Structures are given as structure tokens and as C-alpha cells.
Amino acid sequence: MLVKLAVDVAREAMEAAGSARGDPSAVRLALRVLLPHCPERWPLTMFWESSVQDHVIGREQGMNAAYNGILGQLERAGVLPVGTIS
Q: Which of 19, 29, 59, 67 sits in a 20 to 30 Å window from 43, CA-based?
């Protein structure tokens, strides 16, 4: 349940990336919760680095790609069933 909540926070931040940067504290906490469940750190690092970018298009594209990477890692780790989150 905590992992699902962290994924929801990341998704909301990603969806809001076009209008403004999200709450960095909420994003940081969500990524910290997901860290033990992601064998590869690159999507978490990419999500964080993208979320603090000033360039809107770069922020949106980077967060979207990283979010998909996070979901893939969580599914492969068996933390989230495949197709749970769309």
C-alpha cells in the first residue's frame, strides 16, 4: 500500500510538471520509499533530476520516461502486479 501511494505521488508530480515544478519534499519522500524496491537506481535519479529542471519540456519528458522506468522496475521486482497502474 505504501508503494502504491508513493507511485501515486510520483504520478501526480509528473502530471503537474507542465504547469510548475511539484513539491520537492513529496517527490523526495516518494522516491525514498521506492528505492528499496528498484534494483536499478537510474529511473529514480532521472525522475528527481527531471523534477527540479526549469525547462518545462525537459521536465515533462524526463519525468515521464523515468516514471515508466520506475513502474517497469516495480513490476519486475514483483512489488506491483503488471498493469496495476496505468
A: 19
Give the chain's largest Cα–Cα span: 34
24-34 and 42-51 helices, crossing angle to 10° = 180
Rounded Cα distance between 57 and 78, Å, is 32
* Residue 74 near residue 38 (C-beta atoms within 8 A): yes
> What pLDDT, in 10s, does the model give residues 19-36?
876 678 899 999 999 999
Q: Is the pTM of this model over 0.85?
A: yes
